[in-house]
């Protein structure tokens, strides 16, 4: 009797789980591979341990992910958000990010990384790394924005710092603002500016309201 009841309960929980996946299929199927999934019968919260969640071109990997939903009129659940507790790795179409926390909106396909964010972006002329304290991202529009003290962007020999940044993954363009600092180790160039725009497709940088220092042999020249 106990074994039969256990089997019935297991089938019932699996049925709820499948229904939950179907409920968030408006933007595409959600695939979950996990060590354990804990959920109350009829509840609107799932706690997933050793989680790997795949949504289109996005893969979320974390020790613990809490998926939260809203009850629908017909008694089902529409799953709306996924929250990673602790270290999380997110593999995107052209980038990989790690952080100590993440909130992801399953409806808008947008989210926020928090604490010690590190992202590597694949570029045609070499990978670009970004370090920030907080980063917003949208996997549908391929737009990213963040802040730090400072934000640090590294592209080959080019080192960039600033308070805020945005990145358009479709146009391959970075914009860095406020207290911008640029250093190129190969050319020994230093610059301080209000705003920097870097186009990674044509490998160009534009600085606005800039002061630059160029080392010529053993001398330096500062432009104002």
SSE map:
Layout: H1 2-23, E1 30-33, E2 36-39, E3 45-55, E4 58-71, E5 77-91, E6 95-105, E7 110-121, E8 128-138, E9 143-155, E10 158-168, E11 173-184, E12 189-199, E13 204-208, E14 211-216, E15 219-223
Antiparallel strand pairs: 1-3, 2-3, 3-4, 4-5, 5-6, 6-7, 7-8, 8-9, 9-10, 10-11, 11-12, 12-13, 12-14, 14-15
Task: Offer a concise description of the structure.
The protein has one helix and 15 strands, in the order αβββββββββββββββ. With 224 residues, it is mostly beta strands. It folds into two domains: 86 residues, no CATH class; 133 residues, Lipopolysaccharide (LPS) transport protein A like domain (lipopolysaccharide transport protein A fold, Sandwich).
In total, how many domains does the architecture comprise? Answer: 2
DSSP summary, beta strand count:
15
Task: Quickly name the level 1 CATH class of the largest domain.
Answer: Mainly Beta
Which percent band covers the strand fraction?
A: over 45%
Helix content: under 10%
Question: How confident overall, as mean pLDDT?
Answer: 82
The second-level CATH architecture of the largest domain is Sandwich
- H/I helix tally: 1
- CATH homologous superfamily of the largest domain, by name? Lipopolysaccharide (LPS) transport protein A like domain
Which of globular, elongated, flat, extended, rod-shaped describes the shape? Answer: elongated
Described by strand count, sense and barrel closure, the largest sheet is: 15 strands, antiparallel
Regions with little confidence, pLDDT below 50 for 5+ residues: 1-27
Structural class: mainly beta
Question: What are the secondary-structure elements, in order, as H or E?
Answer: HEEEEEEEEEEEEEEE
Task: Report Rg.
Answer: 23 Å
End-to-end distance: 85 Å
The CATH topology of the largest domain corresponds to lipopolysaccharide transport protein A fold
């Amino acid at each position: 009797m106990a074994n039969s009841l256990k089997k019935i309960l297991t089938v019932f929980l699996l049925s709820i789980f499948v229904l939950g996946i179907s409920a968030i299929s408006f933007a595409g199927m959600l695939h979950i591979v996990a060590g354990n999934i804990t959920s109350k019968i009829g509840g609107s919260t799932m706690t997933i341990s050793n989680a790997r969640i795949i949504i289109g071109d996005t893969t979320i990997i974390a020790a613990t992910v809490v998926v939260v939903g809203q009850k629908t009129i017909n008694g089902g659940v529409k799953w709306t958000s996924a929250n990673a507790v602790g270290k999380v790795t997110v593999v995107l179409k052209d980038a990989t990010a790690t952080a100590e926390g993440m909130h992801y909106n399953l409806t808008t396909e947008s989210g926020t990384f928090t604490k010690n964010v590190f992202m590597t972006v694949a570029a045609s002329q070499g990978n670009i790394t970004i370090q920030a304290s907080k980063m917003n991202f949208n996997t549908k529009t391929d737009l990213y924005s963040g802040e730090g003290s400072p934000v640090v962007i590294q592209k080959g020999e080019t080192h960039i710092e600033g308070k805020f940044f945005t990145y358009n993954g479709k146009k391959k363009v970075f914009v860095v603002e406020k207290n911008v600092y640029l250093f190129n180790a190969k050319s020994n160039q230093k610059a301080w500016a209000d705003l920097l725009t870097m186009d990674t497709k044509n490998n160009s940088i534009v600085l606005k309201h800039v002061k630059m220092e160029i080392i010529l042999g053993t001398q330096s020249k500062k432009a104002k």
